[in-house]
Protein backbone atom coordinates (compact mmCIF):
# COMPACT_ATOMS: atom_id res chain seq x y z
CA UNK A 1 0.00 0.00 0.00
CA UNK A 2 1.25 3.51 -0.80
CA UNK A 3 2.43 5.60 2.14
CA UNK A 4 -0.02 8.46 1.53
CA UNK A 5 -2.97 6.05 1.35
CA UNK A 6 -1.88 4.23 4.53
CA UNK A 7 -1.68 7.51 6.46
CA UNK A 8 -5.18 8.50 5.30
CA UNK A 9 -6.87 5.10 5.83
CA UNK A 10 -5.28 4.71 9.28
CA UNK A 11 -6.38 8.28 10.09
CA UNK A 12 -2.90 9.32 11.23
CA UNK A 13 -3.33 12.16 8.73
CA UNK A 14 -6.89 13.11 7.74
CA UNK A 15 -6.41 13.85 4.02
CA UNK A 16 -4.32 12.03 1.43
CA UNK A 17 -3.23 15.32 -0.16
CA UNK A 18 -1.80 16.49 3.18
CA UNK A 19 -0.05 13.12 3.66
CA UNK A 20 1.48 13.46 0.18
CA UNK A 21 2.68 17.00 0.91
CA UNK A 22 4.33 16.01 4.21
CA UNK A 23 6.02 12.97 2.67
CA UNK A 24 7.31 14.90 -0.34
CA UNK A 25 8.89 17.45 2.02
CA UNK A 26 11.00 14.63 3.51
CA UNK A 27 9.31 14.62 6.92
CA UNK A 28 8.47 10.90 6.94
CA UNK A 29 10.89 8.01 7.31
CA UNK A 30 10.22 4.32 6.79
CA UNK A 31 12.70 2.08 8.62
CA UNK A 32 15.17 4.96 8.90
CA UNK A 33 15.04 6.06 5.24
CA UNK A 34 13.31 9.20 3.97
CA UNK A 35 10.18 8.14 2.08
CA UNK A 36 8.14 9.67 -0.73
CA UNK A 37 4.35 9.50 -0.83
CA UNK A 38 4.50 6.68 -3.38
CA UNK A 39 6.74 4.45 -1.23
CA UNK A 40 5.17 1.10 -0.37
CA UNK A 41 4.37 0.36 3.27
CA UNK A 42 4.42 -3.22 4.58
CA UNK A 43 3.38 -4.86 7.84
CA UNK A 44 6.22 -4.51 10.34
CA UNK A 45 7.55 -1.22 8.94
CA UNK A 46 8.40 1.56 11.40
CA UNK A 47 7.27 5.05 10.38
CA UNK A 48 8.69 8.25 11.87
CA UNK A 49 6.46 11.22 11.04
CA UNK A 50 7.61 14.77 11.77
CA UNK A 51 4.76 17.16 12.43
CA UNK A 52 5.58 20.75 13.44
CA UNK A 53 6.19 20.32 17.17
CA UNK A 54 5.58 16.55 17.39
CA UNK A 55 7.43 13.48 16.16
CA UNK A 56 5.28 10.35 15.99
CA UNK A 57 6.80 6.88 15.67
CA UNK A 58 4.45 4.03 14.76
CA UNK A 59 4.77 0.39 13.72
CA UNK A 60 2.48 -0.92 10.97
CA UNK A 61 0.48 -3.92 12.24
CA UNK A 62 -1.93 -4.49 9.36
CA UNK A 63 -2.97 -3.07 6.00
CA UNK A 64 -6.64 -2.51 5.23
CA UNK A 65 -8.03 -0.89 2.07
CA UNK A 66 -10.83 0.85 3.98
CA UNK A 67 -11.66 1.16 7.65
CA UNK A 68 -14.28 2.46 9.98
CA UNK A 69 -13.15 5.03 12.52
CA UNK A 70 -12.99 2.48 15.36
CA UNK A 71 -10.87 0.04 13.32
CA UNK A 72 -8.31 2.59 12.06
CA UNK A 73 -6.17 2.37 15.21
CA UNK A 74 -5.77 -1.39 14.68
CA UNK A 75 -3.56 -0.66 11.66
CA UNK A 76 -0.64 0.60 13.77
CA UNK A 77 0.92 0.66 17.24
CA UNK A 78 2.30 3.91 18.63
CA UNK A 79 5.92 3.39 19.67
CA UNK A 80 6.61 6.97 20.79
CA UNK A 81 5.19 10.47 20.62
CA UNK A 82 7.80 13.15 21.33
CA UNK A 83 7.31 16.91 21.58
CA UNK A 84 9.99 19.57 21.07
CA UNK A 85 8.08 21.81 23.48
CA UNK A 86 5.34 20.13 25.47
CA UNK A 87 2.51 22.64 25.61
CA UNK A 88 0.26 20.10 27.30
CA UNK A 89 2.04 20.56 30.64
CA UNK A 90 1.25 23.63 32.75
CA UNK A 91 4.13 26.08 33.19
CA UNK A 92 5.73 26.11 36.61
CA UNK A 93 7.29 29.16 38.28
TrEMBL record:
SUPFAM superfamilies: Alpha-L RNA-binding motif (SSF55174). The keyword rRNA-binding applies. GO terms for molecular function: ribosomal large subunit binding; rRNA binding; tRNA binding. It comes from the Bacteria. Keywords: Protein biosynthesis, RNA-binding, rRNA-binding, tRNA-binding. Residues 1-61 form the RNA-binding S4 domain. It holds the Pfam family S4. GO terms for biological process: rescue of stalled ribosome. Belongs to the RqcP family. Key component of the ribosome quality control system (RQC), a ribosome-associated complex that mediates the extraction of incompletely synthesized nascent chains from stalled ribosomes and their subsequent degradation. RqcH recruits Ala-charged tRNA, and with RqcP directs the elongation of stalled nascent chains on 50S ribosomal subunits, leading to non-templated C-terminal alanine extensions (Ala tail). The Ala tail promotes nascent chain degradation. RqcP is associated with the translocation-like movement of the peptidyl-tRNA from the A-site into the P-site. Associates with stalled 50S ribosomal subunits. Binds to RqcH, 23S rRNA and the P-site tRNA. Does not require RqcH for association with 50S subunits. This is RQC P-site tRNA stabilizing factor. It comes from Lactiplantibacillus fabifermentans DSM 21115.
